Automatic annotation (TrEMBL), chain A:
InterPro entries: Pept_A22A_PS2, Peptidase_A22A, Preselin/SPP, Presenilin_C. The keyword Protease applies. Keywords: Endoplasmic reticulum, Golgi apparatus, Hydrolase, Membrane, Notch signaling pathway, Protease, Transmembrane, Transmembrane helix. GO terms for cellular component: endoplasmic reticulum membrane; gamma-secretase complex; Golgi membrane. Homodimer. This is Presenilin. The keyword Transmembrane helix applies. The PAL motif is required for normal active site conformation. It is found in: Endoplasmic reticulum membrane; Golgi apparatus membrane. Pfam families: Presenilin. Probable catalytic subunit of the gamma-secretase complex, an endoprotease complex that catalyzes the intramembrane cleavage of integral membrane proteins such as Notch receptors and APP (amyloid-beta precursor protein). Requires the other members of the gamma-secretase complex to have a protease activity. May play a role in intracellular signaling and gene expression or in linking chromatin to the nuclear membrane. May function in the cytoplasmic partitioning of proteins.
TrEMBL record, chain B:
This is Gamma-secretase subunit APH-1. Keywords: Membrane, Notch signaling pathway, Transmembrane, Transmembrane helix. It comes from Zalophus californianus (California sealion). Component of the gamma-secretase complex. The chain crosses the membrane at residues 6-25, 32-55, 67-86, 115-134, 173-192, 199-218, 224-244. GO terms for biological process: Notch signaling pathway; protein processing. It is found in: Membrane. Pfam families: Aph-1. InterPro entries: Aph-1 (IPR009294). One of its GO terms (cellular component) is gamma-secretase complex. It comes from the Eukaryota. Potential subunit of the gamma-secretase complex, an endoprotease complex that catalyzes the intramembrane cleavage of integral proteins such as Notch receptors. PANTHER family: GAMMA-SECRETASE SUBUNIT APH-1.
Length: 483, 270
């Protein structure tokens, strides 16, 4: 699932008004008011534009309404403060929520142009981690024998594919898929139910257990197999020290605070490890049918009104919380241009994590990098109008998407009979699918399923490259012909 | 076989493309996206060519003999046609996207058509080169039996087949390099021809592409094949240079380090 990351920027015009109202007082971490303040400090420029617009995002369910109101109000020339005052009686949390722009006087077209301009950057911000994950998976598959050996199957795919007849094999793979998909659906619904009833401790414990397993057990196995492949000896103390450090830093980065790059790297690594597990333990035909079925499920779960993933995103947005960082890759990137006076404060404000005291545990803020909460209030009346304050927000991509992209490319690499063309074709197809999905995200501005388009392209290109292109290219290569 | 062979061949074949990518494309996200879309268009064109060849083969019932060779030649020629068709389609897509960007915001400078021509040519070239060469590259890391399966290296040492394998691999390396560069130049010339409605340019691009592919039919005379392809590449390069707005004067200034950018950078006057 792909959706805009939420940052709390508000129209600049509000900040001065709010200062006047005394809302911008000293920072009180832990209160939503403090958060509101911080968010207001972020934006001072009159050129404020809707972040979510600019970064291919937006529209959460209440904010679109706010956006419309804002635009209406501003286009009518009303004071922005009036609009803000209407909302101040409401939950102050709304103030923290991302508000779309409608900078007075700016035509709507500017926002769209900014969307397209910044859209390319966000596409690349997602291309890079997806590519890295796929490279790790393909490199492992091609070099470490362990992940291509058949050593049993998961309990979720109990039917074997070693049957003599094609029909039986197909039937078994379809049954495996049904079981796997129902397990995934059940777990997702369970997660959403837990989230709805605020059983944060349970969810947190569950996520911690699964990341513990990934970071320690699977890493240990992976490291063991890589060392075996390259015939490198490593004694147990060194091994335990390495795995312990790797795992502990990973747990801290993912579930608590850490540098954004490190968190992203760890998320990529655990996605790659999970994808390798799937590649090893899913039988061939089942893997392809599961990939197809899971993209259909993703489509349904994210777009249908009662879909579990959509409910998860909407509940998170209603409660103004980020979705669990252990499940989401965030490409948040912030930079300000021309912010002569307010760089430290704006940077601090932009990155402010959710107050830990607001919720019971601290899983919420890790989508964004944690900057110190210190900031200074903006100088009143500072003319920031001419400064072009461009603050980028990232796009968030679910880890499941990483995992299934890598499963597709890894399976292509594992079963492509040593052929790299198939792997490369699937890789390009997935990237193009991701590009199209991001384009749709820019158009629709709400959470979208990231799997269907990419996986469809990937599957089409896998089967066609394997069956049509490969014989053609092989024949050409054997005759030394070039096209 | 050895890492040296692997790296040597890899850098000969893909070195210029990698340099072009790093210095001109990697810095701008929009160009990277257009590059990947260009690669995708080439891939789709290859898909259609393979489909055509596959259907032609099934129609003739897979009979062995000279008909297979003729089918292959036909497949190659049709593939070249389809590639150029997809280049044209990519041009149309880019034109529409450019116009869309311009209509949304007239002030913002969208990438110029010349730049997009270069990027698309590079995309086509990289994908074409990679598809042609990467299997050979990965085989060169293996036990050294390029293109032939199941025999031991010892057999080849004794049979004197190694020189042929080496020659084959070197031929492929240099062909890949020249194909990548040719695609870049063809892209520039093609898009310029489309922009200025000079259909003769399109025809020349198509004909030279067919010529280059046809020259590969005369293997195993690798020497003639390669040299003539390189000559064609140099000619195309010169044409693309003038089409892209270069001139003898600007070239002279560039070589003598007197061009505007260099002077501005060093704050000197000409």
């Amino acid at each position: 699932m792909i959706f805009p990351s939420r940052d709390f920027k508000v129209l600049s015009g509000f900040s001065s008004d709010l200062e006047a109202r005394g809302v911008l007082c000293s920072p009180e971490p832990g209160t939503s008011q403090g958060r509101a303040m911080l968010t207001f400090m972020a934006s001072d420029s009159e050129e404020e534009v809707c972040d979510e617009r600019t970064s291919l995002m937006s529209a959460e369910s209440p904010p679109p309404r706010c956006c419309q109101e804002a635009r209406q109000g501003l286009e009518d020339g009303e004071n922005a403060a009036q609009w803000r005052s209407q909302d101040s009686e409401e939950d102050l949390d709304d103030a923290d929520r991302y508000v779309c722009s409608g900078v007075p006087g700016q035509p709507l077209g500017l926002e769209e142009e900014l969307t397209l301009k910044y859209g390319a950057k966000h596409v690349i911000m997602l291309f890079v981690p997806v590519t890295l994950c796929m490279i790790v998976v393909v490199a492992t598959i091609k070099s470490v024998r362990f992940y291509t050996e058949k050593n049993g199957q998961l309990i979720y795919t109990p039917f074997t594919e070693d049957t003599p007849s094609v029909g039986q094999r197909l039937l078994n793979s379809v049954l495996n898929t049904l079981i796997m998909i129902s397990v995934i659906v059940a777990m997702t619904i369970f997660l959403v139910v837990l989230y709805k009833y605020r059983c944060y401790k349970f969810i947190h414990g569950w996520l911690i257990m699964s990341s513990l397993m990934l970071l320690f057990l699977f890493t240990y196995i992976y490291l063991g197999e890589v060392l075996k492949t390259y015939n490198v000896a490593m004694d147990y103390p060194t091994l335990f020290l390495t795995v312990w450090n790797f795992g502990a830093v990973g747990m801290v980065c993912i579930h608590w605070k850490g540098p954004l790059v490190l968190q992203q790297a760890y998320l990529i690594m655990i996605s790659a490890l999970m994808a390798l597990v799937f590649i090893k333990y899913l039988p061939e035909w089942s893997a392809w049918v599961i990939l197809g079925a899971i993209s259909v499920y993703d489509l349904v779960a994210v777009l249908c009104p009662k879909g579990p993933l959509r409910m998860l995103v909407e509940t998170a947005q209603e409660r103004n919380e980020p979705i669990f960082p252990a499940l989401i890759y965030s490409s948040a990137m912030v930079w300000t241009v021309g912010m002569a006076k307010l760089d430290p404060s704006s940077q601090g404000a932009l990155q402010l994590p959710y107050d830990p005291e607001m919720e019971e545990d601290s899983y919420d803020s890790f989508g964004e990098p944690s900057y110190p909460e210190v900031f200074e209030p903006p100088l009143p009346g500072s003319p920031e109008g001419e400064l072009e304050e461009e603050e980028e927000r990232g796009v968030k991509l679910g880890l499941g998407d990483f995992i299934f992209y890598s499963v597709l490319v890894g399976k292509a690499a594992a079963t492509g009979s040593g052929d790299w063309n198939t792997t490369l074709a699937c890789f390009v197809a997935i990237l193009i699918g991701l590009c199209l999905t991001l384009l749709l995200l820019a158009v629709f501005k709400k959470a979208l399923p990231a799997l269907p388009i990419s996986i469809t392209f990937g599957l089409i290109f896998y089967f066609s490259t394997d069956n049509l292109v490969r014989p053609f290219m092989d024949t050409l290569a054997s005759h030394q012909l070039y096209i | 076989m050895t890492a040296a062979v692997f790296f040597g061949c890899a850098f000969i074949a893909f070195g210029p493309a990698l340099a072009l990518y790093i210095f001109t494309i990697a810095t701008e996200p929009l160009r990277v996206i257009f590059l990947i879309i260009g690669a995708f268009f080439w891939l789709v064109s290859l898909l259609f060519s393979s489909l055509f060849w596959f259907m032609a083969r099934t129609i003739t019932d897979n009979k062995d003999g000279p008909i297979q060779k003729y089918l292959l030649i036909l497949g190659v020629l049709v593939s070249v046609l389809i590639q150029e068709m997809f280049r044209f389609m990519y041009y149309k897509l880019l034109k529409k996207a450019s116009e869309g960007l311009k209509s949304i915001n007239p002030d913002e400078t969208a990438p110029s058509m010349r730049l997009l021509a270069y990027v698309s040519g590079l995309g086509f070239g990289i994908m074409s080169g990679v598809f042609a060469f990467v299997n050979t590259l990965s085989d060169s890391l293996g036990p050294g039996t390029v293109g032939i399966h199941g025999d031991s290296p010892q057999f080849f040492l004794n049979s004197g087949a190694y020189p042929l394998i080496e020659k084959t691999r070197l031929n492929k390396t240099f062909m890949t390099l020249v194909i990548i560069l040719l695609h870049v130049f063809w892209g520039i010339i093609f898009f310029d021809g489309c922009e200025k409605k000079k259909w003769s340019a399109l025809l020349v691009v198509l004909l030279t592409h067919l010529l280059v592919s046809a020259l590969t039919f005369i293997s195993p005379h690798y020497g003639i094949n390669l040299v003539s392809t390189y000559i064609i590449m140099v000619l195309m390069g010169i044409w693309a240079f003038f089409v892209a707005g270069g001139s003898c004067r600007s070239l002279k200034f560039c070589l003598l380090c007197q061009d505007k950018d260099f002077l501005l950078f060093n704050q000197r006057s000409r």
